């Protein structure tokens, strides 16, 4: 019999009064302390830029692993160590905890707010929860898989083995590196399919009619429009015997084209998703980043080796791209657009460089700007008003060894209006980050530090909130601007913080009765 525990916290009126603030982007970290609490690393740590550009790949850190998921009424949070998922109701803050499979790794909610899909890595299955009743349907998937992606319409889940993730050390009998599971989350039907060797990434077209699975040699296009998925495989590597690592895929908003970047190739692959033909679009040397502009009109490639940007028209990608020369002394491998499509940040995570470049998309102006330390990750607030930079612990060559930030973790808040900044010394590595979609508040937590750090983007100030235990997730309550922090506690602990009222409330023990039948 399925077992659920229930707990309701009576918070103060100030916390329960919902505001019109937008959601905070979900984030997660890791932590441990007693009750008395990025994918981006430093890149080629310690390496300096050089003319031959033989450094590591740029790595984009979304600062997150165990993402909570939200509907218009609930938050679902994975508790991996306890094989449970907790559901928090908004605004009542009633917490229900339900047992799922072994080692639940990720939960996603469907766009219609009707279902929560849990991938249980330890038991090789999905738990499909009715968001309202928590009734569960269990669907077995193939063994040895470690990642799940959900289509935008919430109908299809693709579960695969991401070859870029560390191996969990599982041993057993025969194991395939080409098979994946496709689950219809409405009907519960499961399909196994063979795709390219060692998939690296899965994306869906915006209409959810196709799933695209990228491996080094192939792009597998899975048609999901019929009763059963149908797979067609397209060769994307020119050298099938020694293919370059496939690192990124972007899909045009209309689903007509897929743009693929392979590390070290002086071109990108363009796949016509209607004809399944492949063409090569020349770029500069060693393209290290590929992104679509927020309006979906441009595909931008950063060619780190030749210090150039290649800007392709997404509707007519075969036309001549705009080529923009980057500042000659800079080592730039990554681009991040502001969501308002007015500017972009150009930087590197593959070398210890303590500056970045802003790109004004209206005027084309490029400006090199200083930082206190090299970059671990970059985040632009959703309204485009501020830049959040988390820095590496390592320092740039020639850094002042007597400076306040030397050999330490740090972060910077930077106004994208006048570029004033607030540089902040950190006592540990940041492990999770979230910000409000209205651009007012940001939140992050650090490793083995029982604090919630609150960022005020209006004045670039920081407030530190003491927690009773170590945080695991940080995010926002649906329909409010209140942060929630799921913490590492054997009985379950959640804290809720209202930054406007400066009010912290905590629930402890919501898993205390998880064994009681309900």
Q: Notable features of this structure?
A:
1 helix; mainly beta; 1% helix; five-stranded antiparallel β-sheet; 518 residues; disordered C terminus; 42 strands
Could you give a quick summary of the protein structure above?
With 518 residues, this protein is an all-beta fold. Helices cover 1% and strands 45% of the residues.
Write the layout of secondary structure elements.
Layout: E1 4-8, H1 13-16, E2 27-28, E3 69-70, E4 74-79, E5 84-89, E6 94-99, E7 104-109, E8 115-120, E9 125-130, E10 136-140, E11 147-150, E12 156-160, E13 179-184, E14 190-194, E15 201-204, E16 210-214, E17 218-223, E18 230-235, E19 246-251, E20 257-262, E21 267-272, E22 277-282, E23 287-292, E24 298-303, E25 308-313, E26 322-325, E27 334-337, E28 343-347, E29 355-360, E30 366-370, E31 375-380, E32 386-391, E33 409-415, E34 421-426, E35 430-435, E36 441-446, E37 449-456, E38 461-466, E39 471-476, E40 483-487, E41 493-498, E42 503-508
Antiparallel strand pairs: 1-6, 2-39, 3-4, 4-5, 5-6, 7-8, 8-9, 9-10, 11-12, 12-13, 13-14, 15-16, 16-17, 17-18, 19-20, 20-21, 21-22, 23-24, 24-25, 25-26, 27-28, 28-29, 29-30, 31-32, 32-33, 33-34, 35-36, 36-37, 37-38, 39-40, 40-41, 41-42
């Amino acid at each position: 019999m399925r077992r659920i525990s229930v707990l309701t916290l009576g918070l103060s009126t100030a916390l329960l009064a919902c505001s019109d603030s937008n959601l905070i982007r979900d984030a997660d970290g890791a932590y441990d302390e007693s009750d008395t609490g990025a994918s981006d690393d430093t890149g080629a740590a310690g390496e300096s830029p050089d003319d031959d550009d033989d450094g590591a790949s740029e790595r984009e850190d979304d600062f997150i692993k165990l993402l909570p998921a939200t509907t218009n009424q609930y938050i679902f949070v994975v508790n991996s160590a306890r094989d449970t998922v907790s559901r928090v109701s908004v605004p009542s803050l009633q917490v229900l905890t339900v047992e799922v499979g072994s080692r639940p790794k990720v939960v996603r909610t469907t766009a219609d707010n009707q279902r929560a899909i849990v991938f249980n890595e330890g038991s090789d299955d999905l738990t499909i929860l009715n968001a309202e009743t928590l009734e569960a349907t269990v669907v077995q998937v193939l063994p040895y898989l470690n990642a799940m992606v959900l289509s935008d319409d919430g109908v299809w889940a693709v579960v695969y083995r991401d070859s870029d993730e560390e191996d969990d050390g599982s041993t057993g009998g025969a194991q395939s590196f080409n098979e994946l599971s496709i689950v219809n989350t409405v009907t519960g039907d499961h399909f196994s399919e063979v795709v390219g060797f060692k998939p690296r990434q899965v994306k869906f077209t915006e209409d959810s009619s196709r799933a695209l699975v990228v491996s080094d040699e192939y792009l597998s296009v899975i048609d999901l429009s019929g009763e059963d998925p149908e797979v067609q495989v397209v060769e994307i590597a020119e050298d099938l015997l020694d293919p370059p690592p496939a690192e990124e895929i972007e899909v045009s908003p209309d689903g007509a084209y897929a743009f693929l970047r392979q590390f070290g190739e002086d071109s990108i692959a363009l796949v016509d998703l209607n004809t399944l033909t492949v063409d090569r679009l020349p770029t500069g040397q060693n393209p290290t980043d590929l992104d679509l502009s927020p309006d979906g009109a441009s595909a931008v490639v950063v060619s780190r080796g030749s210090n150039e940007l290649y800007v392709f028209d997404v509707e007519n990608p075969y036309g001549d791209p705009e080529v923009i020369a980057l500042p000659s002394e800079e080592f730039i491998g990554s681009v991040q657009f502001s969501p308002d499509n007015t500017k972009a940040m150009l930087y590197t995570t593959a070398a210890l460089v303590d500056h970045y470049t802003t790109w004004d998309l209206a005027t084309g102006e490029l400006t090199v700007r200083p930082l206190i330390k090299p970059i671990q990750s970059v985040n632009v607030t959703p309204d485009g008003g501020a830049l959040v930079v988390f820095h590496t612990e390592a320092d740039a060559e020639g850094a002042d060894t007597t400076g306040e930030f030397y050999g330490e973790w740090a972060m910077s808040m930077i106004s994208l209006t006048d570029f004033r900044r607030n540089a902040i010394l950190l006592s540990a590595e940041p492990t999770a980050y979230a910000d409000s979609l209205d651009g007012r508040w940001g939140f992050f937590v650090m490793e083995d530090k029982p604090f919630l750090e609150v960022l005020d983007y209006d004045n670039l100030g920081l407030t530190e909130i003491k927690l009773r235990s170590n945080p695991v997730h940080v995010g926002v309550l649906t329909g409010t601007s209140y942060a929630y922090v799921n913490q590492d506690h054997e009985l379950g602990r959640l804290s809720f913080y209202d930054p406007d009222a400066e009010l912290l409330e905590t629930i402890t023990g919501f898993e205390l009765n998880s064994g009681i039948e309900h």
